[in-house]
Design goal:
homodimer, alpha/beta, six-stranded mixed sheet, 46% helix, phosphate:acyl-[acyl carrier protein] acyltransferase activity (chains A, B), Phosphate acyltransferase (chains A, B), phospholipid metabolism (chains A, B)
């Protein structure tokens, strides 16, 4: 049997805590033998949830009681510092002390990002750990790297993002020789802002990645690249506009369908098929965004994540550990120091 | 009768030239008495197109023959310099010499942007002329300013964009006291990259605009602001992702509708209503993007613009001239120099 992986799940994080995180954890340990889950949070509440399920492998699901909860609205740095007995801080500290391999949370994005960097710490050589959600495309998914909280990246950061993203897509998501592109305001090589212009030749010089050049935002949803590299401010705009355009367009579709008697009848017939197809293009469905380049793995699931997404995030952690992603990143990041110091 | 406005239309620009530009020009002069159109391009080709229409008011539609065409793929600066007898250069020069009030083209965006700045020239006090397309929202349209070719803007540029955008939305589009917001990676005031953080207090200090703070990309399609201010690289990403997500989602909707016999029947019933509603959310339908802050007006219509969009762009020019937008911009830009030199 493959090496067993220990994942801490924040039972207090997200809109549906503790119900959904606990349910996801139970599903994960039931489906795979090589997983141990530690739930951090209020013991009484978690035990009550666990009581709903039968045949739980009790040796592989445990509770670590915590007395505090970090709210979404709290300033992250302060929250991490003050709430030492919160489900997030305790969970991240377990990863730091190597008592666990990974931490999954649907709680405050800011607190998870700050805590991941401050408590778990960066891998040797990693300048800045990126947050890298999977976004839906026509063909499947792409990794959008970086969507984190640290904006105004330097070219060397983007080069590291490209390398980490390529490793993730290849070994966790299973895309062979992933196509890496940098977000730009045109496809031509002379296009770009100062950051992109400086980064482009560095990426071109990277032998370890399959760099295909610039990608215009229009071509991201079409799936022209597997790893979409950008600075976090731009990444944030892309991720949130995906959501925003999607939501507004779906509303328009519904409105259109309800606009006449004829179309209402049609809507009834179309609805089930449409729902299934649109689900494949829902950014939130792809759940876990890893915070890469840390000494352990930290995965942020969105605030409204339900059990299946928590479960998938846990499975991502297993894949990450078993595929030795951190070791692979450490290797390639060292190799990076050569190429970024000699721009092509 | 209102003051007559002279608009040059590039008859050779865009995917459907000269058919659609000529058709749009004919429709414009037929619908309104206060418009004169000058078509630049190959005289024989234009005359052939004009020959298709009856009852043209010949005194208000004229041809200026040009022998060259700037292709979309040509490097813009070189094209503007070399092709002095192209429909774009001749048209822009007419605006420069005040032989016309405005220029409309569906041709090379780069050439129109470069030519607008180099040939027509900036209004006094304008540091950088922004390209500002109207984008569809749930509620109507918003002005996305800047989507031009000059990236890496400074805070003072963004303040000018906000002022020019507000004037345009108020007096050309007709939105009273337009809400102005800056694109940010979070709604809180402390969020942002270096540029946004520096610009935010300057906008807050502007008494002449209705500044409502930051806007997250998610809320742009929902129509939370009338004037969406951003640096051109980010604007380009927003504009093109709008298109890209829209196109992919519509494909998914079609795919969903064709996935079963039941849904195919439903699709037939739903189609006409759906088509009409989705048309209101098609970024390309809103046609003309003005290049603001020049001595005359330059409007770029998208490459696949058809007659109705050319006509609407011509009408925009009339509104622009009759509302004395350039004079209003000049006034407010002078007023700007106080507020940007004293950040709040």
């Amino acid at each position: 049997m493959a090496e067993s992986v220990k994942v801490v799940v924040d039972a207090m994080g997200g809109d549906y805590a503790p119900v959904e995180p606990v349910k996801g954890a139970v599903q994960a340990v039931k489906e795979r033998q090589d997983i141990q889950v530690i739930l951090t949070g209020d013991k009484t509440a978690i035990e009550k949830e666990l009581g709903k399920y039968q045949d739980i492998p009790k040796d592989r699901i445990q509770i670590v009681h915590t007395s505090e909860v970090i709210e979404t609205a709290e300033p992250p740095v302060m929250a991490i510092r003050k709430k030492k007995d919160s489900s997030i801080v305790v969970g991240l500290n377990m990863v730091k002390k190597q008592e666990a391999d990974a931490f999954v949370s649907s709680g405050s994005t800011g607190a998870v990002l700050v805590g991941g960097q401050v408590l778990v710490g960066r891998s040797k050589g990693v300048e800045r750990p990126p947050l890298a959600p999977l976004i839906p495309t026509k063909k499947g998914v792409s990794l959008l790297i970086d969507c984190g909280a640290n904006v105004d990246a330097r070219p060397s950061h983007l080069v590291q993002f490209a390398k980490m993203g390529a490793i993730y897509m290849e070994h966790v998501v299973g895309v062979e020789n992933p196509r890496v592109a940098i977000v730009n305001n045109g496809a031509e090589e002379e296009k770009g802002n100062a950051l992109v212009k400086e980064t482009f030749p560095l990426l071109k010089a990277c032998k370890s990645i399959n760099f295909i050049g610039s990608i215009e935002a229009r071509d991201i949803p079409a799936g022209f690249a597997d790893v979409v590299v950008c600075e976090a401010f731009v990444g944030n705009v892309i991720l949130k506009l995906y959501e925003g355009v999607g939501a507004t367009l779906i509303e328009k579709v519904k409105e259109g369908m309800m606009s006449s008697f004829r179309s209402k009848i049609g809507a009834l017939l179309v609805k089930p098929a449409l729902k299934a197809t649109l689900k494949t293009f829902d950014a939130s469905e792809h759940g876990g965004a890893p915070l890469l380049g840390l000494k352990g793995l930290v995965v942020k699931t969105h605030g409204s994540a339900v059990a299946v997404e928590i479960k998938n995030a846990i499975f991502q952690c297993v894949q990450f550990k078993q595929q030795r992603i951190n070791e692979k990143i450490a290797e390639r990041i060292n190799d990076q120091e050569q190429s970024t110091s000699e721009p092509a």
